[in-house]
Specification:
- By secondary structure, the chain is mainly beta.
- It contains 3 helices and 17 strands.
- The chain folds into 3 domains: 99 residues, Immunoglobulin-like, CATH 2.60.40.10; 98 residues, Sandwich (Immunoglobulin-like); 36 residues, no CATH class.
- A 5-stranded mixed sheet has the order 2-9-8-4-6, with no helix packed on it. Strands 1-3-7-5 form a 4-stranded antiparallel sheet, with no helix packed on it.
- It is elongated.
- The relative contact order is 0.11.
Length: 293
């Protein structure tokens, strides 16, 4: 009896051992056959892990000093990538059309540097303040600003502001405008005049004091076409930095009122209104209307 029970217990233990071994073998087989069960290896560390691009400017403000108005100004700023990732220059914006900025490469590797060339050219004299904005993928400072400062001096000074203005004139009127031109350059200038190609205006240059003072004379040539007219007088300086100075010429030719020898321009207001057929239905001569004193 005891022997029979021992045999049964032995068989049960043998069966349990076989089942355990079979289960372990099955689990090991599935682990090898199915990669989804395997532990995924850690990805290699990324190059960008913990790093970023960083833009550094050699200067944020440049003073070019004093230049002559019309003289070209060119300065440079060194752009460097002091970060650990590639720096991308997305765009460069200037304040006006008189300022340009150029860069020969828009992507800078870590440690790489490039020169940003800024050019400025304007004919008008005075103080200059221009800003150039550099947009990049620098996460700390996506927009860097370079400020350009300086002063432009006049090579020639005109006695009237910037232009010759005849105002309103009649079509048969011979009007004359003169402008004194003073040379402000360091050395005397033998000023010259380029021919003015315009049917309504004749221009010539008179010497008042050789090398220092000249007079620009502009005269209208009847009969003038109705409406506005524009021309330019180009003064030749002989200065390499500023070889030419342009003087605009403008005016407006008024129409003649129908039925009257007088033109609108210069008429007293009451005469002009009475002579206008659109207001009265008929034309009155200037002698029929008593002008206000």
């Amino acid at each position: 009896m005891r022997s029979s029970k021992m045999q049964q217990a032995f068989r049960r233990n043998e069966m349990a051992g076989w089942l355990h071994a079979t289960a372990v073998a099955f689990l090991l087989t599935m682990a090898v056959a199915s990669p989804a069960w395997a532990v995924a290896p850690l990805p290699p560390p990324s190059v960008s892990s913990g790093g970023s691009p960083k833009l550094h400017l050699s200067a944020t403000e440049i003073d070019f000093g004093e230049k002559w108005a019309g003289e070209k100004v060119e300065v440079g700023v060194r752009l460097s990538n002091v970060g650990t990732e590639p720096l991308r220059i997305e765009k460069i914006k200037t304040g006006c059309g008189c300022t340009t900025a150029g860069l020969d490469r828009k992507v800078l590797a870590p440690g790489e540097s490039r020169d940003l060339t800024i050019r400025y050219n304007k004919r008008r004299a005075g103080q200059v303040t221009q800003r150039v904005r550099v947009h990049s993928n620098d996460p700390e400072k996506p927009v860097a600003v370079v400020t350009l400062r300086g002063k432009l001096k006049k090579v020639l000074r005109l006695s009237s502001p910037q232009s010759v203005n005849f105002g309103r004139i009649g079509p048969e009127e011979t009007a004359t405008q003169t402008v004194d031109v003073t040379c402000m350059y360091d050395q005397p200038i033998e000023l010259g005049l380029k021919a003015v190609a315009h049917d309504s205006v004749a221009v010539h240059l008179e010497t008042v004091e050789a090398g220092r003072l000249y007079r620009l004379v502009a005269v209208t040539k009847p009969r003038l076409p109705q409406g506005s007219f524009r021309a330019t007088a180009v003064l030749l300086t002989g200065v390499e930095a500023v070889p030419e100075v342009v003087v605009p010429i403008r005016g407006t030719v008024e129409p003649v009122v129908a039925g009257t020898p007088e033109r609108k321009c210069g008429m007293p207001e009451t005469v002009r209104k009475a002579a206008d057929p659109r207001r009265t239905g008929r034309t009155k001569s200037a002698s029929q209307v008593k002008a206000r004193p």
